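Researcher: Sequence of 4Fe-4S ferredoxin-type domain-containing protein follows. Predict its structure.
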Amino acid sequence: VTLKAFFSKKVTVQYPEVKTPLSPRFRGKLALMRYDNGEERCIACKLCSAVCPAQAITMESEEREDGSRRTTSFEIDAFKCIYCGFCEEACPVDSIVETNIFEYHMTENHQRIQTKDMLLATGDQYREQTNINRKKDSTYK
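Model: Prediction complete. Tokens:
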């Protein structure tokens, strides 16, 4: 250690007590969003599963009486997902988003499959913060 380095500013962060700020473009845990009226945004176009390089997204859909499609099953395998953001970019209705949640864990192997209900609950819980980050990020798109 040189004398100059000894007196320079420290860069070590005492995580988890002190957290560094996250970029609005941070890609964390995936979530499904709803419209303001509570209806889910996903139209079952399957673009997200088609563009996923890790093939982590699987879904099943059915047609409604009014002619629109909605998902009956939507699952993301958290062990396969590489958090690349391609699914978010491909979605035409902004249904699937990446939140800034990075502190989560799984204790059982079956928890790796994130179901539609789990993803919608995450979207509901972090909706406000996700919308703020998306507005900040919109200048780069």
